TrEMBL record, chain A:
<feature type="transmembrane region" description="Helical">
    <location>
        <begin position="6"/>
        <end position="24"/>
    </location>
</feature>
<dbReference type="GO" id="GO:0016020">
    <property type="term" value="C:membrane"/>
</dbReference>
<keyword id="KW-0812">Transmembrane</keyword>
<dbReference type="InterPro" id="IPR001750">
    <property type="entry name" value="ND/Mrp_TM"/>
</dbReference>
<dbReference type="GO" id="GO:0048039">
    <property type="term" value="F:ubiquinone binding"/>
</dbReference>
<feature type="transmembrane region" description="Helical">
    <location>
        <begin position="465"/>
        <end position="489"/>
    </location>
</feature>
<dbReference type="GO" id="GO:0015990">
    <property type="term" value="P:electron transport coupled proton transport"/>
</dbReference>
From TrEMBL, chain B:
<feature type="transmembrane region" description="Helical">
    <location>
        <begin position="110"/>
        <end position="130"/>
    </location>
</feature>
<feature type="transmembrane region" description="Helical">
    <location>
        <begin position="436"/>
        <end position="457"/>
    </location>
</feature>
<feature type="transmembrane region" description="Helical">
    <location>
        <begin position="301"/>
        <end position="320"/>
    </location>
</feature>
<feature type="transmembrane region" description="Helical">
    <location>
        <begin position="205"/>
        <end position="223"/>
    </location>
</feature>
<protein>
    <submittedName>
        <fullName>Unannotated protein</fullName>
    </submittedName>
</protein>
<feature type="domain" description="NADH:quinone oxidoreductase/Mrp antiporter transmembrane">
    <location>
        <begin position="159"/>
        <end position="448"/>
    </location>
</feature>
<feature type="transmembrane region" description="Helical">
    <location>
        <begin position="142"/>
        <end position="159"/>
    </location>
</feature>
Automatic annotation (TrEMBL), chain C:
<dbReference type="Pfam" id="PF00420">
    <property type="entry name" value="Oxidored_q2"/>
</dbReference>
<dbReference type="InterPro" id="IPR039428">
    <property type="entry name" value="NUOK/Mnh_C1-like"/>
</dbReference>
<feature type="transmembrane region" description="Helical">
    <location>
        <begin position="28"/>
        <end position="48"/>
    </location>
</feature>
<dbReference type="GO" id="GO:0030964">
    <property type="term" value="C:NADH dehydrogenase complex"/>
</dbReference>
<dbReference type="GO" id="GO:0042773">
    <property type="term" value="P:ATP synthesis coupled electron transport"/>
</dbReference>
<feature type="transmembrane region" description="Helical">
    <location>
        <begin position="6"/>
        <end position="23"/>
    </location>
</feature>
<keyword id="KW-0520">NAD</keyword>
Amino acid sequence: MNTFPWLTALGVLPLIGSVVVALLPKSRPSLAKQVALVIALATLVLTILMALSFDGASTEQFQFVENYPWIPAFGISYAVGIDGIGLVMVALAATLVPVVILAGWHDVDDAASRTTGSVKGYFALILVLETLMIGVFSSIDLFLFYVFFEAMLIPVYFMIGRYGGPQRSYAAVKFLLYSLVGGLFMLAALIGLYVVSANLTGTGTFDYLTLVGLDIDPGMQKVLFLGFFLAFAIKAPLWPFHTWLPDAAAQSKAGTSVLLIGVLDKVGTFGMIRYCLPIFPAASEFYAPVVITMALIGIFYGAFVALGQHDMKRLFAYSSMSHFGFIALGIFVFTTTGESGSVVYMVAHGLSTAALFLTAGFLMERRGGSSLISDYSGVNKAAPVLAGFFLFAALSSLALPGLVSFVGEFMVLLGAFQKYMFVGALATFGIVITAAYVLRLYQKSMTGPLLPALEGMKDLKGREIAALMPIAAITLVLGLFPAPILNVINPAVDTLMTTIGVTDPPTTLNPSTTAEGTQE
Amino acid sequence: MINAGAVVWAEGAPTLQEIMPAEGVFSLIWLLIALPLLGAAVLLLGGRRTNRWGPYLAVLTVTASACLGILMVVGLMGRGAEERSIGQSLFTWVFAGQFEADMAFQLDQLSMVFVLLITIVGALIHVYSLGYMEHDPNRRKFFGYLNLFVAAMLLLVLANNYLLLYVGWEGVGLASYLLIGFWQHKPSAAAAAKKAFIINRVGDVGLSIAIMVIFVTFGSVTFDDVFGQASEVNEGTLTAIGLLLLLAAAGKSAQFPLQAWLLDAMEGPTPVSALIHAATMVTAGVYLIARSNAIYDRAVWAATAVVVVGLITIFMGAIIGSAKDDIKKSLAGSTMSQIGYMIMAVGLGPIGYVFAIFHLLTHGVFKAGLFLGAGSVMHGMNDNVNMRRYGALRAAMVVTFITFMAGYLAIIGIPPFSGFWSKDEIIHAAFERSPIIGSLAILAAGITGFYMTRMVAMTFFGKARWEDDAHPHESPKVMTIPLIILAIGSTFLGMALLFWGNIETWLEPVVGYSTEPSPLSTSAVIAISLAFVIVGSVIGWISYARREVPIVAPRGSLLTRAARADLYGDAVNEGLIVRPSYLLSRVLIWFDGRVVDGLVNGSAALVGGASGRMRRYQSGFARSYALSMVGGTVLVLLALVLVRLS
Amino acid sequence: MNPSNVVILSAILFSIGAVGVLVRRNAIIVFMCVELMLNAANLAFVAFARMNGNLDGQVVAFFVMVVAAAEVVVGLAIIVTIFRTRRSASIDEPNLLKY
């Protein structure tokens, strides 16, 4: 049954959808929304079907592989396939897109957005972005990955620059330039890698598995690693490459922010796991202390800056930066729990960011778009359901045990602690500051006396609840029963650990058999 | 020094019990948790539809859990002492590499008594709340949160590994947060809720790191694996684990130095204070330490730290309780102090564990009774909490008065009320360990007598100092019946557990039990502690019943003023942690905007500026372009010539 | 005849053309100077073809003539248009194509 081209079908469906949406008459915006939603839901169904036929116990690293030569002269091919990590990321993207479409139903109806872009254009861009996201997570040819990686900038640029807030063009250009600089470094490293592969094997290639199998000179690795890492660190973003994120998040629509931070930025951390570690194992180990330091600084820096923010969206952006610190920490400690935890954290962060931004979006819509925290107080009284979702999102963001973010966070911290006791213990203190800024936000905006200006504020409507409910349900269910994702993530992480040739540090008592092997 | 892995308190340390499969009624362990959880889900997700019948459903689910608990205790009693530990595993929860934590429960003698305390006291408080919260528009939510709390607390005591315990641990913290801030329109309530959660998070850091140390040491986080192999681990590691768990316990149980949240937590509705901040949640720290007895028995320094923290808190709580005029805050101080006793007792090792749990149970009942009694008083006094505006209420609310007196006699430890037995055993155990600890414990018992007498005298005796619009009246039956049941418990539970239930033998297989020679005989301890209590009470009586109580609080001594300010706990937190954090935050925001983003925007400006200069050369004069072309050509030619020549 | 003399002549013609382009303002004259430079190049091509003894240079010279003819057509058209709108054939006048 594996002959069905799942991944290509998955990628093409939203693309066709976007063309259809773009060709619809401008005078019927609601039809465009409906078509976009149907297409996104169909993609989700297709993703679920694919996930069901994914074999967690397979010995092959990648499944649903399709490989066609594209530019044979340079060893470039259209090669797609996914492992467990790619699968959960594709699933995350496919889940969030319909949610964002549903939640952003009226986001671009206002006059300000319509002067610069049409309603159908926004939804068409979302679908194009979905195609590119699926492509980026399922490429197993580095050149193809690069193409998707860079192409993703285009729809996002327009989504921020055309449909954003007052300073949208500043934010969009900043985002674009930052990403392009990173992409440039990556392109250079990519060409370098091609040359290296040509020197080592005789024929240059961009094929992922071949490149992983190469035994690249450590000195060369250190140079090439930097190119890839810079691109991913800007995308993720890690401290100190983060300053585009608060601007982009503050200026874009809630839906754009969700896709940008929830999925797109994950490409950065995903890239570190997929490319940096296996292709440059020696360099990864060499740079690990630097990256871990950056991650640690990021965790606390982001959290402390978030603590003093007056603007909700900027607060979320800095909190995300703090969370990306956790993810990067988990990746670069080289333990099974750390790597698995990072992937779980990526999913969890996608979900919690989506919940936060969307709820905040609904809130701002009811207050003329202001995102200043001081413009809200006592919302709980007027809109209890909204406040309830807001609290749930906040708790999900502070990694309350029982929610999926806790599973990810704890695994990351444990993974760090196993390797570097001090780092793990230090990072754990981040959870206190996270609680402080998240609950401060909740306290200031949702509790206390109701502001007179908010009198008569409407609670969430059916459509908005329908958008938030799936995210909340997934967050809770995976928190109590994470086996569905752990079952696919863990084999992929095991493969990764074998590829980079690192084993977990043994425990004092009852060391596992594999760990014992390395001790002797 | 003690050798690695040496058992410090070998005497009385328990041997690991074999875990029996869950059969019969025990196959329903999960249902204990699931019932209140279901209630919470229905109430919180059901929306306004459930407004009418929701609260009754909440009462029903907790009652059903209580009945199930009673069935289980009967089942356990029918078994031999070595077959009373039952495990039930549902599925593997978190796993990666070597790490594995199951969604699995363990019901043994220790969890059992907690299940009974939580479900029975919980059910009574649910019933009481039906009356207390009758007119609150958000009654449904209140009951949903209460149910959520019961479910989380049961998960905490039933978990068979530390990670799952953590879920319950944070679950009760969440419920506590929601309930303290239940009246969210009051900024003080919202602030208190946030404060409680954040201080608890500091404790959680301890628990998180403890779990990590446990995993890297034992390769497992299951209680059975950890305790079974604790003897193979060196003392340093065990001490680290012990201290980290103590930090966690200090957060949840409001012990020094993380005590500051409990007094503010009284912003919550009174039933919440009774259930969460007196009877159950705040005792979770005691449970955690008692459960980890295998670790503390081998880490004498950690155990000593536990004793010290307990002692400090006993006095802090007692002093605060003596100075507060707010009846609930005074009771909260008393709770801190009483939990201090328990914490001190679990630090004593096998001579103390069982009595700590014993005191925990009796305290859970009588303190719940006292809080609900205070709630009943407030109910009749227009929610006024200031004891200086009470006085002479004994005639106006007879049932409340009588039940409150039962709780009062129990807490100060007058025989045969339940507190006497448990506190006396703790003091006795303290003397077995060290006369200093014992003496301090007795001194604190005297202070307990003082502040409780003060409270009773100010509330029920003396002259009426009511506000003009106060019309004290007895509460409805739905509130007084739980009071009566708890009063009966306050009176007889101590004797029942000690003589009929044999609490030492019951708990011994889990936490261990031993006695050591004591410098004072049992009767001497009783005599001295009773003497102290009576002296304290008499002073309290003379100062607050015989003399006129001023309506406006007098300035008071230095200590009184310090105690009114919670012994400056908030001031210390504010000065040492909160202000520096916000300062750091502001500095970093400045740094981020000016330096990091400044660099980015600066380089952008540099490129922009440079290109602005460059474009000036695009003058639009075709001939100057032609000249630069010629010049360029000449330069290239010259270069070529030079290369040729050289 | 020595072909190198022809090359020197072509260099002189080219320089005259180049200087003319640089110093004259009248568009027509500038244009003629450009033609002069093109023809200087043609002369050089032919001379080199003779020196090398093959026809490549002569072939290129034909190409240049064709291109020059095309250029004259386009260029004169532009000059005439500009002259119509601006009443001037000075090439310093239309300086709108700047930053």
